[in-house]
Structures are given as structure tokens and as C-alpha cells.
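#lab-general

N.A. 3:47 PM
ok so I finally got the sequence cleaned up, no stray characters, all 426 residues accounted for. can someone with queue access submit it? mine expired

B.Y. 3:52 PM
send it over

N.A. 3:53 PM
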Amino acid sequence: MARRAGSADLPLHGGSVPRWLADRMTRLGAVLSQAIVHHYGRDELLRRLANPFWFQSFGAVMGMDWHSSGITISVIGALKRGLTPLRSELGIHVCGRRGRHSRLTPQELMAVGERVGIDGAALAKASRLVAKVDSAAVQDGFDLYLHGFIVTDAGNWTVVQQGMNDERRQARRYHWLSEGLTSFIDDPHTAIEGRPQGEIINLADHRADASRRAQLELLGSLGPDKIAREFVALRASERGVSAPQAQECLPHLLMPFHHAVRGSDVIARRLHGNLAAAADRGPKDFPELLLTPGVGARTVQALAMVAEVVHGAPFRFSDPARFSLAHGGKDRHPYPVPIKVYDETIRVLKSAVQKARLGRDEELDALRRLDAQARALERVATGPSVEQLINDEIQKSHSYGGRSIFGFEPPPAESKLSAPVRASRG
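B.Y. 4:20 PM
back already:
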């Protein structure tokens, strides 16, 4: 049986992703997916996408608004653009989209089935059922507007779909995974993101099995008029009814409404571990890769967080804000996107993946060592506060080609250098 993995609140944001960032997200999303598939296989990529914490971190490392619902649309869109040309190589197909176009997903899945020789009709049925469960069986006040369906050549799949509540200015994201799924109406979700907001009707809960069967029996034996009378009788004797079993507790990721990345949003020891590992391993592993003067060391810092997205264990993504410190954010939070660093990150990863396809794994292995070093150092690494690091990055933003939806960053009036991150082994 598929398990639920957690929940989160997502502020509902409007706007669009600028072309200069969308193109880079497409390239970075594709090469990260290739690295994950190379190391761990296609099914592991599906498991990652079905994890709400990893999914949010994945979007944050790509320069999107680290806390908002917009990550869902932008990540699915970037993967669809980036992985479609690689579908024959990777055996992964990204279908679906937002709005009324989401209704075309079954046709896309039928086409995938015909192309690779899997049961497209069954996939199309799964797509419709998933959408129906989250829009009808789970009545939580959120109207679905996005449906993304990722499927492999073997027929395994994950679904990421999202609903919105305009009145509350919130979004809720639902994650599904075919692995271990035996029923669409009996606890099927790996995760439902969104803060509990009162009682909801969830006929997809396994404890609702008796209710589902009883509803069918009532419709057949009593009819609507008698059902209404029975309902009045039940309300009259409500005090004599035993309390229902409480909903089980799930990990809850609370995405705040504030735009700025604060120290409280980041687990500082993990961040210091990332930065200390970059300082320690960079000179050993990357001298021939980092050819752009002035941004090499900064690129290794970004690569340390990118490497964690590829290799990190699920529990390490409990602070998605930390991953926004790799490539900033389009809305200038925590700082403008450092274009030079972003492009260098893509170049290093693309080179590593291309060589790995030819059997030369030394560059991808260097990223794995970088991630391992970060975990080893995080218990002893020290350094400036998150706020100091962000301020330092803002001061240097112009030299990194910093860009946001407001344009390119001008030269700073005054540069303030923060203390270097260091590792203490005492």
C-alpha cells in the first residue's frame, strides 16, 4: 500500500517565470534528472518527485520562489521541456499541464503507450482516477488546476497535482506514486501538502471503506427521501455516537508567507557543512572544471547543494529554503539569481553526465564526494549567520551577473565582506 509522506502549506502566488530563468531551469532540471537516473535508476527519480520535501527543495535549487506554490508549475514545466528530448535515452515521459489543458493528459498517456509498448489505456484511466479522487473523494476546499503525470517505459509512474483556494490564498499539492499502490480509494497518497484547516471529507481514507459501502447500500435500499430522514434522526442522537478515530500524525512542512529567507528557515549546520565541504573539496576535485575567473569557488558552493539534491537522504530536505542559497530566486529572495554561477553549474553537471554516459564517472563521483564531505563536516563546521551570508551575496551579486524579475543588479555602493566559513576539527 502506498504511504503518505507528509504535508505542507504553500502560499498561492501568481505571475510567471521569465524566459531567461525558465530556459535555465529546463537545462538544470534535465541534467539533475540524468544524474539521479545514472546513480539510482528511473524509479528513484519517481520516488523523489513523490516526496513533497524533496520536490520543494528541487524547485528552490533551480532559482524559483523557495516557498510558493509556483514551484509546482515551474518544476513540472521545466521537466516536461527538458526530459521530452531525452525520453528515448532515459525512458521517462512527462505528461500533463495546468488549467483546461490538463484534460489532455489521458491522450498524451495513450500516445506514450503506443510509442513504447505499455498499456496506455490503463495509464489514462489512472490519470482520470487520480484527478477524481483529489477533486471529489477528498473534499478539502481546494480546486485542482494542475495535473502532472510522469511515467517510465516500464509503466511505473508518479503524479503531482495541485489545487488552489483563492479565498485563503493557499495552494495544496498532492503526490501519488504507483509503487505499492493497490487501490485508488484506500489511502493512496504518498503525501498531501497543506495545513489542516478544519474537518474535510476524505472518502479515500482506508477508514472510510465502510462508509463507501454503506453509501451504495443506502442509495439502493432507502432512496434519497428516506436517506434525508435518517440523517435528521442521526443528528438528533448525535451525542450518543462515539468519536471517530483521530487522523494519524504526518510530517508537516510549513511554508511561510514571508518572502525573505530568514535564519529560522534554514538549518545552519547543514548550510555550513555545504560551504565547508566546498572550501575543502573544491581545490582537490574541480581545478580543471572551473574555468571562469572569479566564480569558480562560488560555483562549488552551489554544486555542494546541487549534489545534495542528487544524493541526499529524504530527511535532509526538511529546510527547502537552504537550497535557494545555491542559485537565489527570481523575485530577489534570498538574492538575485547569479547567472554566471548558474550557467557554470549547468556546464559542470552537463560535462559530468556526458562523460558518465561514456563510462567515465570521475566527475560525477567528485560531486558524490562533495556531498559526502558536507555531511561529514556539518557537525563541526562554523561560519557566519544566514543573514550575513545573504547580505554578502547581495553585495557580490553584480559581479555574478545577478538578475531578478526587476532586472540586472547594479554595482553595490559599498561592499561588505563576511567572515569565511571554516571547519573546526577540535
